[in-house]
Write a structure and sequence with these properties.
mainly alpha, Citrate Synthase, domain 1, 3-stranded antiparallel beta sheet
Length: about 450
């Protein structure tokens, strides 16, 4: 058994025992109550699922196993001469709850290199799609096409016992994470570089090799990629891509089926697609205004015209957060340190000055602050990655780390099939009538 799997096995067994005891002693403890407006309102804030790798606080933002993003940037192992955390380290932390040593991270990088071979038929499946197919659809198809290699599905068919589910899920998770950058880079080079594919450089870490396969060998891109892949990895369990992974996985669909479904959720404009929408929106603004250096007044007018046309301001607002997203702030700090003079980055910062008061003035927006997607596109543009239709794929590669680590835990804790109760409006009206009578 490899060393990460061994560690996970020990932690998971201990926690499964603890959870069993906890449920025996406190299973009937009330942890939340549900309002009618929450049932109609996207189940906002209802505490109703278990997700081990991370926890989101509305004011403070995300913590991964207790560590905030600034803490992770300080404590996680880095590449030689690098300043940003290696996403491999975050994966280790999310899976077993401990900050890994540099040697442990090196082991993980090398393990993923050995698992990174993508079966040829996966590329053929992607090639069968029209070239203009959105890259997120191509990613989802690529992941689905690998499902025939699922260790979980194969062992399940051979009658594996419940106690072995986590083991097979771990194997699928490690294989999937190892292969994803190759698939994503294949889609990128297929769509935008006439299929001129680049071989992996196995001397590089996971994030840097991904940047290399996309065609970017600049140290700045590699560093940003490490940061990007770290901060997008997880945002507790209720967000649409995470929850989709959990729901689909709860039927014992294997990690390939679950992750592919998650990518379809991430591809929505109110979720991960927002990162492409932000750049599209900014580009349209500078084209309309005829300047790459718009004033705050000009941006304000443009924001108001977007709202007047019934559209949302992409990159702003959040279902849980009530402060500027620390993932936005980490990217802002990266830009202040590395690329403070970029025109689009400066526009992103001016938008941060202008949008919150306008959204607040609408009187209905619960969080007027920027989220993670408000910043990433401008940084990618700076480094020459202009193909904004591809940005959500980068998000997807990162998100796999968190949602698959969580799936390992769901299997280890034997969490059951998810099945909340739904009711009809007729049922609601009858309940109201009944309560008025009582
Ligand atoms: N621009 C304009 N209106 C907005 C808004 C924005 N950025 N954010 C919220 N609102 C509106 C909502 O559309 C809603 O209007 P109605 O009552 O007329 O329907 C009202 O304000 C209340 O919404 P809310 O409670 O504040 O926000 P929700 O929890 O319903 O939605 C969203 C959260 C992220 C979907 C929302 O803020 C939004 O659409 N933002 C823009 C898209 C975006 O950036 N998405 C990425 C979010 C982060 C993420 O998941 N990344 O992957």
């Amino acid at each position: 058994m490899d060393l990460l799997k061994q560690l996970f096995s020990e932690k998971a067994q201990a926690q499964a025992k603890e959870v069993k005891e906890l449920l025996q002693a406190h299973g009937s403890m009330k942890i939340d109550e549900v309002l009618l407006e929450q049932a109609y309102g996207g189940m906002r804030d209802i505490t109703s699922m278990i997700w081990e790798p991370s926890l989101l606080d509305a004011e403070e933002g995300i913590r991964f196993r207790g560590y905030s993003i600034p803490e992770l940037r300080e404590k996680l192992p880095r590449a030689k001469n690098g300043k940003e955390p290696l996403p491999e380290g975050l994966f280790w932390l999310m899976l077993v709850g401990e900050i890994p040593t540099p040697d442990q991270v090196k082991w993980l990088t090398e393990n993923w290199v050995r698992r990174a071979n993508v079966p040829e038929h996966v590329f053929r499946a992607i090639e069968s799609l029209p070239i203009e197919t959105h890259p997120m659809t191509q990613l989802s198809v690529g992941i689905m096409a690998m499902q025939n290699t699922s260790v979980f599905a194969q062992r399940y068919n051979m009658g594996m016992t419940r106690s072995e589910y986590w083991d097979a899920t771990y194997e699928d998770t490690m294989n999937l994470v190892a292969r994803l950058p190759r698939i994503a880079a294949y889609i990128f080079r297929r769509c935008y570089f006439k299929g001129d594919h680049l071989l992996p450089d196995i001397s590089l870490d996971w994030g840097a090799n991904f940047a290399h396969m996309l065609g970017y060998d600049d140290e700045g891109v590699k560093e940003y990629m490490r940061l990007f892949l770290t901060i997008h990895a997880d945002h507790e369990g209720g967000n649409a891509s995470a929850h989709t992974t959990h729901l689909v996985g709860s039927t014992l669909s294997d990690p390939y089926l679950s992750l592919s479904a998650a990518m379809n959720a991430l591809a929505g404009p109110l979720h991960g697609l927002a990162n492409q929408e932000v750049v599209r929106w900014i580009q349209k603004m500078v084209d309309t205004l005829g300047t790459t250096k718009p004033s705050r007044e000009q941006i304000g007018e443009y924001v108001k015209s977007t709202l007047a046309s019934g559209r949302v301001i992409p990159g702003y607002g959040h279902a849980v957060l009530r402060k500027p997203d620390p993932r936005y702030m980490a990217q802002k700090q990266f830009c202040e340190d590395n690329i403070p003079d970029d025109d689009m980055v400066k526009v992103v910062w001016k938008i941060f000055d202008v949008v919150p008061p306008i959204l607040t003035s609408l009187g209905k927006v619960k969080n007027p602050w920027p989220n993670v997607d408000a910043h990433s596109g401008a940084v990618l543009r700076h480094y020459g990655l202009n193909q904004y239709n591809f940005y959500t794929v980068l998000f997807g590669v990162s998100r796999a780390l968190g949602v698959l680590a969580a799936q390992c835990w769901s299997r280890a804790l034997n969490l059951p099939i998810e099945r909340p109760k739904s009711v009809t409006t007729e049922w609601v009206k009858e309940l109201i009538a009944q309560q008025q009578k009582d």
